Amino acid sequence: MRKKLVAGNWKMNKTFLTANELIKELKGKLTKDDLEKVEVVICPPFTSIYSAKKLLEGSGLKLGAQNVFHKDEGAFTGEISAPMLKSFDCNYVIIGHSERRQIFNETNHLINLKVKNAVKNNLFVILCVGETIEQREEKIHKKIVDEQVTLCLRDLSKEDAGKNIIIAYEPVWAIGTGKTATPEQANEMHIGIRKSLENIFGKDIAEGIRILYGGSVNEKNSAEIFAKSDIDGGLIGGASLKSDNFTSIVKSAI
Ligand code: PGA
Q: Mean pLDDT for each consecutive 10-residue tract of the chain (254 residues)?
């Protein structure tokens, strides 16, 4: 009942021209039929959002951003707001990626402000959560992830959560390292996250929220990961930068 979603997080990769090439390739390889069965979102850098919007028109591929600020406008040098994204038909946004948390010191509190403002502007939010290797070794990973989910979604209404929230579980130790959580490890965490969602929003809402897995997903391991009961798709970094790899991953979700 939960439609699978595969999102490509391009991070700080691709110039204007190479981004356009990749989008054109993806349009050639993903059929309308594929895109009816799986929701596919690409998240290029901000500098390619406008050209992506133009190239994606009518394709069925959806457009997302990698970050957003928590105010709609004002004196916030260097930031991008939700209304700006909406004006490019960019309807999805990744919030709270571990690179933002670790490199740019984003806290659960700031992420909560961003989530609330994005939802107010009717963006679909891909909220990233996940533990570090130290936290897993200390066996506090479940508590950490529950805390991230609870704090980052604080004060959101049931209706908004049900309509606009997608979670991406991304263990920090699996991102860009080639180490994936086993499908069993990932599914266990997804079941825990769904329980946290149930505690906040109730069972009906929690059952409908999609929980993606991210962290070294590639065309070889994706099918097994996506087959698990509570894994509703993936957030793909490195493997989203090549059209063949990303296309194979999307098709493995069908
Ligand atoms: P990766 O990145 O697939 O390169 O591990 C995933 C992510 O950071 O979203």
A: 96 98 98 96 98 97 98 98 98 98 98 98 98 96 98 98 98 91 96 98 98 97 97 98 98 97
What's the CA-to-centroid distance between 75 and ligand 1, angstroms? Answer: 32
| Boundaries of domain holding 158 | 5-252
Residue 1 confidence (pLDDT): 83
Expressed in angstroms and rounded, the spacing between residue 95 Cα and the centre of ligand 1 is 14
> Given the CA of residue 239, which atom of ligand 1 is nearest to it?
3
DSSP per-residue letters across the chain: -PPPEEEEE--S---HHHHHHHHHHHHHHS-HHHHHHSEEEEE--GGGHHHHHHHHTTSS-EEEES---SSSSSS-TT---HHHHHTTT--EEEES-HHHHHHS---HHHHHHHHHHHHHTTPEEEEEE---HHHHHTT-HHHHHHHHHHHHTTT--HHHHHHHEEEEE--GGGTTSS-PPPHHHHHHHHHHHHHHHHHHH-HHHHHHSEEEEESS--TTTHHHHHTSTT--EEEESGGGSSHHHHHHHHHHT-
Evaluate: CB of 237 within 6 angstroms of ligand 1. Answer: yes
Query: Which CATH number belongs to the domain containing residue 74 in this structure?
Result: 3.20.20.70
Task: Please state the domain count of the chain.
Answer: 1
Candidates 99, 106, 131, 170; catalytic one: 170
Q: Is the CB of 175 under 6 A from ligand 1?
A: yes
List the residue whose alpha carbon is closest to atom 7 of ligand 1: 237
Q: How far is ligand 1, taken at its centre, from the CA of residue 30, in Å? A: 21
